[in-house]
Design goal:
The chain contains 7 helices and no strands. With 157 residues, the protein is mainly alpha-helical. It has one domain. Helix 2 packs antiparallel against helix 3 and helix 3 packs antiparallel against helix 7. It is globular. The two termini are 21 Å apart.
């Protein structure tokens, strides 16, 4: 079992830098959907019913974030497919980061990712060129933080 968590900020920054700035939110939206799947997988692994419900709520928040961001693009799915076709290794990042970790470490790493996500959406909001886009980015940040709060609460138990 690894004793140190991967540097999720470095890994995600490197992935984003390979994508044009205007397409970065779309790539993150795809990652949000991957995170929703991860949350659902965790929910199937835990026995505590409250924890299951909370993990499923986290999954729904991830999907809400993805849907909000995808609503900013006229052909989001097509653009995401093109991004992934051009960078197929981006799908492996998810697997490589989480697979070698114990469940509690996965929760801790995901919490870090959620905090980073909130910061990222706020940064995108600062550079948004229209009010609707800015508001959507800002709506995503507290959703990320709610999931981080829950994951961190597990670690405190």
């Amino acid at each position: 079992m690894p004793t140190e968590l991967p540097n999720i900020a470095a890994v995600l920054t490197a992935a984003l830098q390979r994508v044009p700035r205007d397409q970065q939110p779309l790539l993150i939206a795809f990652a949000e959907r991957l995170a929703a799947d991860r949350y659902r997988g965790w929910a199937e692994r835990v026995e505590d019913e409250n924890t299951k419900r909370e993990l499923e709520a986290c999954a729904r928040r991830e999907e809400e974030i993805a849907a909000l961001i995808e609503s900013l693009y006229s052909s989001a799915k097509s653009a995401q497919q093109k991004l992934l076709a051009a960078h197929p290794d981006l799908l492996e990042v998810n697997e490589k980061l989480f697979a070698p970790l114990e469940l509690e470490q996965q929760f801790a790493l995901q919490a870090q990712g959620e905090r980073l996500g909130a910061l990222t959406w706020r940064a995108f909001a600062q550079h948004a060129t229209d009010e609707r886009t800015r508001e959507i980015f800002l709506r995503c940040a507290p959703l990320e933080e709610a999931s981080a709060d829950f994951l961190e609460s597990i670690a405190r138990k």
